Amino acid sequence: MHVLITGGAGFIGSHLTDLLIGRGDTVTILDDLSTGRIENLTAARAYARERVEFIQGDVTDARLVNRLAHQADLIVHLAAAVGVFRIQHDTLRSLHTNLRGTEVVLEAAHQAGTRVVVASTSEVYGKNDCDGLTEESDRIIGSPLLSRWSYAEAKAIDETITYQYVQHLGLQAIIIRPFNTTGPRQRGRYGMVVPRFIQQALAGEPVTVYGTGEQSRSFGHVLDIVGAIATLVDTPAAYGQVFNIGNPAQITINGLAQKVVERSGSRSPIIHVDYETAYGPGFEDMQRRVPDISKISGLTGYAPRFSLDDIIDSIIAERRVLAVAS
């Protein structure tokens, strides 16, 4: 296949590029490098330079996206403004990227007759903290005036627009909702908790837990998530549907911090910072976010291969290699 990946120089996109190139596909990457990094593509470009094309550009550029869509058999739309810090502090631009970008990709895919995977997020469930969120679980969202929920709102609208293209225009599309994806190449600068904790622990700095730390999350290894995407793409019955992707194993943020300190051999203390200090006034969080993955498992046999210990160890190893190299 010839696959167009928007946001392909990002954390998830670059791992997906590696997987697709490794199995023989040709990949075009569109990324503006606002959060993606060209260094993430080193392995892919060295492995098969003639089958990887990188284009620095904006996903809201309709003319560019339309041209690239007509050259592709499949689009995987990962480009988005992500991370709690970025959403909180650059809300308007983030909304534009997340809404307009998806609109441009869907219209280009429709015009070109190209299949598409649209990456949504577990954030669409909002404050629904039931133990095992299914694809049909209700959304519980805070005030639209709080920037905290703007990402969830934008992604929910993206899903609605995608579904309407499927229902009324016959677009072949899959919607995915990844849950707390992490692993090598992810950086903590935008609020991603696992790499942030690891960075602090390796530096001997206090590991800062926001809130009480009793909120629980589940973390999926990026290699599990991109493997699931590749499997869904090859499953005809997946088109027209939405799927949770993640690892149902859950841990409190306090437990995560302790595990990072232990596995890194760090002596860093664990401290707590209230939400207002960390994010500003009016921040809201959820106490639990855990996926039910029975739908994707039943259709494709998907099961996570990597544990949280595997995730932490892989990031620690990467950071130590980078530290030696620098």
Please explain how this structure is put together:
The protein has twelve helices and 15 strands. The protein is of the alpha/beta class and about 325 residues long. Strands 3-2-1-4-5-7-12 form a seven-stranded parallel β-sheet, sandwiched between helices. A four-stranded mixed β-sheet has the order 6-15-10-13. α9 (about 255-265) packs across α12. β2, α2 (about 40-45) and β3 form a beta-alpha-beta unit. It has a domain at about 1-185 and about 220-245 and about 290-305: 3-Layer(aba) Sandwich (Rossmann fold), CATH 3.40.50.720. It is about 40% helix and about 20% strand. The radius of gyration is 19 Å and the shape is globular.
Number of helices: 12
Radius of gyration, Cα only, in angstroms? 19 Å
CATH topology of the domain at 2-183 and 221-247 and 290-305: Rossmann fold
Tell me, rounded to a whole number, the average pLDDT. 93
Q: Distance between termini?
A: 37 Å
Q: How many strand elements? A: 15
Task: Describe the structure concisely.
With 326 residues, the chain is α/β, with parallel strands linked by helices.
Descriptive labels:
12 helices, Rossmann fold, four-stranded mixed beta sheet, alpha/beta, globular, 326 residues, seven-stranded parallel beta sheet
